[in-house]
Amino acid sequence: MYNRNNARSSRASSFGKRGNRSNSRFGKRNFSSSAINVNRFICKAETIKAEDVFKPQCAFCDLAIHDVLKRSIANRGFAVPTPIQDQAIPAILAGQDLIGLANTGTGKTAAYLIPMLNKILINPQEKVLVVVPTRELAMQIQEEFVALARRLNIFSVAVVGGADIRRQIKELRLRHNLVVGTPGRLKDLISRKILDLSKFGNIVLDEADRMLDMGFINDVKLLLSLMPRKKQAMLFSATFGKEIENLTKTFLYNPTRIFIKSRETASQIEQNIIRVAVSQDKIEVLHDLLIKTEFEKVLIFTRTKHGADNLSKKLLQRGFKTEAIHGNKTQGKRQRALKMFKENVVEILVATDVAARGLDIPNVSHVINFDLPATYEDYIHRIGRTGRADKKGNALTFVE
Ligand code: ADP
Ligand code: MG
C-alpha cells in the first residue's frame, strides 16, 4: 500500500465524516476516511443515450440578457446552456444569491460570468469580485472572460501571486469591472489601498471546496467583511460539505440552491486500475501505456512536487514530450507548461493535485494516477480533467 502523510490523512478523515452526513440529502456519496477501496477506481463509461441528452429550459437567445452579450456567447461557440447554466443564469439575473453545485467541466464559469456581464452592461459602475483558490484557475477564468466579453467594453483584472504586482496595480488603477484573484494577492492589494472592496456589490466564490481545503477560510471571511452588506453573492463548488454549508450561512441571503451532481464522477469517463506488481517498475508499465496510439494527450498525477519533477525528467529521457506543473515552479513556468500541453506542443503533463485543480484542458484522452490520490475527492477532481464537455475520457489508476 502507499504512504500518506499524516496531516493529509487526518484532514481527509474529518472531511469524510462531514461529507457523509451533509451529502445524504442529495445522493449517495461516501468519502472513505482511510485507504480508498480500489474498486472505486473501476467504472465503465456509459454511452450517452438519446433520451439522456439534456434539454435546456431556455436557449441563450431566450434569456433576458443584452443582445450584444447573446452575440458574444454565440461567437464563443456556446449553442445551448449546460444544466447548471440553464438554472443558475436566470436566478442570478433575477438578483438572487446562489449556491451552485455541479461536476467539474459543466460550465460553472459562464454560469456566473454571463449574468454578471449583463449586470455590468446595465450598470457600468457595477463591480464583481471572483475569488478562487489557485492562480491557474484565476487565469483560466480570465481567459473565459476575455472570450465572452469581447467588444463589450468591460474589463477584468486577474490578480494572482507570482505575477508582477506593479502591472496588476496599473491595470487596477486604469479600470476594472471585474477582479479575479487569489486570496493572498487580493489581501496584499487591499492593504496597499489599491483595491477597495467597499465598491464591490457582487462576489463569486468559485471552487469553494478547494478554497476551504487549502485553508483560505479566514481570508475569505476577511474579504467578505470588507464588502458592502448589501451585495449579490454566489458560491460554486464541485462538492458540498458541512464546512461549506456553514460558510454559505455567513454571507448568502436566502440563496437559490442548484444541485446538479447526479453521480460522483462524470458518466463518460471509463475508469480502471492498473495493477503493478512489487517486482515491476512503475515507469516501465507507464512507458508501455504511453506508446499506445490512443494515449494522445495524457495528464499524469503524482503525489509530490518532487515526484512530478522526477517523473517528467524520466519521461523526457525516454523521448516523450513532457512538461510538469506544480507549486514549486514559478508562475511563468507553470503557465508556459500548461499552454504547451493545451496547444499540443507536449502530449504529456505531469501534475500535482493542487496545480491541476479546476484546470480546463480540452481533449485530455487519459488521466493516469501514477500515485494514488490521498482522498476520493482528490480522485474525482483528478479524473474530472478528462471526459469534459461530453467527450469520452479514460482514467487509469496505478495500484501497487
Ligand atoms: P467548471 O467550472 O464547471 O469545471 P468550466 O466553466 O471550466 O467548467 O467549463 C468547462 C468547458 O466547457 C470550458 O471549456 C467552457 O468553455 C465550456 N463550456 C461552458 N459552457 C458551455 C456551453 N454552454 N456550451 C459549450 N461549451 C461550454
Ligand atoms: Mg470552475
Verbal overview:
This protein has 400 residues and is α/β, with parallel strands linked by helices. It has two domains: 4-48 and 267-399, Rossmann fold; 54-259, Rossmann fold. Helix content is 40%, strand content 15%. The chain contains 15 helices and 13 strands. It has helices at 6-23, 67-76, 83-93, 108-122, 135-148, 165-174, 183-191, 208-213, 217-225, 242-251, 282-290, 305-317, 331-342, 353-356, 376-383; strands spanning 98-101, 128-131, 156-159, 178-181, 202-205, 232-237, 256-259, 269-275, 298-301, 322-325, 348-351, 366-369, 393-399. The strands form two sheets. It has a seven-stranded parallel beta sheet. A six-stranded parallel beta sheet has the order 8-13-12-9-11-10, sandwiched between helices. Helix 6 links the parallel strand 3 and strand 4. Helix 3 (83-93) runs parallel beside helix 4 (108-122) and helix 4 packs across helix 5 (135-148). The longest helix is centred in the first third of the chain and has 18 residues, at 6-23. Residues 1-33 have low confidence and may be disordered. The structure holds adenosine-5'-diphosphate and magnesium ion. Adenosine-5'-diphosphate (ADP) is lined by residues 78, 81-82, 85, 102, 104-110, 144, 360, 388-389.
Compute the CA-based radius of gyration. 21 Å
**Separate helix tally:** 15
Major β-sheet strand ordering:
3-4-2-5-6-1-7
What ligands can be seen in this structure?
A: adenosine-5'-diphosphate, magnesium ion
Percent strand: 15-25%
Main beta sheet strand tally, sense and closure: 7 strands, parallel
Overall average pLDDT: 85
CATH architecture of the largest domain: 3-Layer(aba) Sandwich
Number of strands: 13
- Uncertain spans, ≥5 residues at pLDDT below 50? 1-33
Q: What portion of residues is helical?
A: 25-40%
CATH superfamily of the largest domain: P-loop containing nucleotide triphosphate hydrolases
Cα separation of the termini: 6 Å
Structural class: alpha/beta
